Amino acid sequence: MVVINALIPVFGLILLGYLLGWRRWVPTQAGDSLSSVTFKLFMPVLLFSGLAKADLGQAMSPLLVLVYFVPALTVFVGINLLMHRRAGRPTSMGLAASFSNNVLVGIPVVTLVLGQEFLVYLFAILVFHSLVLFTAQSLYAAFWAEGDRKAFDLRAVLRNFANPLIIGLLLGALLNMSGLQVPAPLWRAVEWLAAAALPCALLVLGLSLSHYRLHMSLSMGVLTLSKLVLLPVLVLLGGLLIPGLDPQARTVLVIMAACPTGVNVLAFYMGPEDNRIISSVVFLSTLLSAITLPLWLLLVG
């Protein structure tokens, strides 16, 4: 019951955002503005403040990266091979089955269910999350592309480091390691901005989902099950089989793996069919995660 009570505000705000977008009570332009200020200000400040006060010693273990990214890349490769053979062309399906919405869903769930002190484990993965999986997708697309499109865009990969979220994490880590103290009035302003991040992020997710439509297909079902079931199973097994990983860290990694597909994956779609299937996966995985996340939390909690 504790888990359910903690998740009600998360999915309640997502539903509220969806209703606001579906009924057009919030215009598209206003939603875009809210999304921009959330991702460029509120969320980076939240990540900055969290990492500035965190115990970095907990997040420096290479086991965290190993336990999360080996299963993620396994799912990425396996689903891409399956869907490539099925479609007869390269797709971005593997990315949809392995890239979690750890910012809009993962951070609120970990914060409300486990506590803000557990975010340090999430931050350790978040630094590499986009870089590793987006680079893997870019390499895959470049290898199978034809003609002039057969090129790896290094600049696109390096742009991941210019992401405001990554900048917030890096600045927070630098402040933490420097030992410097931010004056109390300035830190109070930081805390106010950080407090706006979670509700705004959940509303933004709901608003974005209101623009998607569900197109049922076998591929969509396979991707959704891979994202919500297969990936967290593999992460849990890795966390149990590899000695030395803190049980609290394992819980956070499983939650991250069990989060729905991130909206960012749509930027890598490779054709109209990919776009239709992946947008459906984003919508359905977010909807079903209201059921699967509590189950995973009960299992690992």
Tell me the number of structural domains.
Answer: 1
Q: Average the pLDDT over all residues and give the rounded result.
A: 88
What is CATH's topology name?
Na+/H+ antiporter like fold
Low-confidence stretches: none
Text of the CATH class: Mainly Alpha
- Please count the helical segments: 14
The total beta strand count reads 0
CATH architecture level-2 label: Up-down Bundle
Percentage of helical residues?
over 70%
Percent strand equals under 5%
Q: What is the straight-line distance between the termini?
A: 12 Å
Q: Order of helices and strands, N to C?
A: HHHHHHHHHHHHHH
From the spread of the alpha carbons, the general shape counts as: globular
User: Mind describing the biggest β-sheet?
Assistant: none
Q: How many whole angstroms does the radius of gyration measure? A: 19 Å
Indicate the multimeric state: single chain
Structural class: mainly alpha
How would you describe what is shown here?
The protein has 301 residues and is mainly alpha-helical. The protein has a single domain, classed as Up-down Bundle (Na+/H+ antiporter like fold). It contains 14 helices and no strands. The chain has helices at 2-22, 28-52, 56-59, 62-87, 93-98, 102-114, 119-144, 154-158, 164-178, 184-195, 197-209, 218-241, 247-258, 272-300. It is globular, with a radius of gyration of 19 Å. The model has no long low-confidence stretch (mean pLDDT 88).
List the defining traits of the structure above.
single chain, 301 residues, mainly alpha, Na+/H+ antiporter like fold, 14 helices, 0% strand
